[in-house]
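Justification of computing resources. Each target in the renewal requires a structure prediction run like the one illustrated here; the chain below, 124 residues long, is used simply to show the kind of job we budget for.
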Amino acid sequence: MHPLLLSALIQIESHGNDHAKGRHGELGALQIKPILVRDVNRIMGTHYAHAQVTNRAVATFIANAYLSHYGRNLSDESLARIWQGGPKALKRSSSRAYGRRVMRELERRTQVATSNKPQTFPTK
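Resulting C-alpha cells:
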C-alpha cells in the first residue's frame, strides 16, 4: 500500500475532518461505518467502539487492518474500491469511479510530496 493512500482516502472522504458524520452512520476522517469496526474487531481480536474512530490514530489502525486483511497483494486503486464498497467491491463496476477519484488524489499528493523534497547537489 502506498504510504499516502490513507491520506488520499481521508481527503476524499471528509476533507480531513476527524469529526465528520455521514448520512449512514459513518464517522471520522475516514468515514468508518459501525459494521467495519465490528469486522476489524473480529479480525484483530480488538474491542474498539465505533465512536473511537473520530480519533485519527484509531481510525488509521482500523483502516490499515481492514485493507491489509481484505486487500492482500492488490493495487492501490483496488484498495480504495474495497474501502468504499467492502470486500466484494471489485466485483461491482459502481466502485470504479471512486477508485479513480482516489488515485487522482493520490497522484496529486505524491507530486506535492516529491516537489517538497530538498534538492541535493553533487559534491566534487
